[in-house]
Amino acid sequence: MARDEHHPGWRERHSEPAPLPENATPVQTLSHRLKTKAGRALYALRKQTVEPVFGIIKSVMGFRQFSLRGLKKVTGEWTLVCLAWNLKRLAALRPQ
What we know:
Largest sheet: none
Distance between the termini: 46 Å
Shape: elongated
Number of domains: 2
Number of helices: 5
Low-confidence stretches: none
Helix content: 55-70%
Oligomer: single chain
Radius of gyration: 20 Å
Number of strands: 0
């Protein structure tokens, strides 16, 4: 699957894709499903859920890799990162 254009025309945005051929591959099936109105609406939900949080943790907070090894230590490190994120959000959302 490739990237779509940033600003498709209004006809393309508000129309359904052509029917899928009988011998479509799984990749073509998924691509077709994402181009339907329901698929686009479902895919757009990613923007408002958890994915921006991971982007902020990576870019703003600078957490790109774990420093420790082992599942127990990595779990502790990730818990600390999540705690820092939650405190940051709590401070930002607190009434002045």
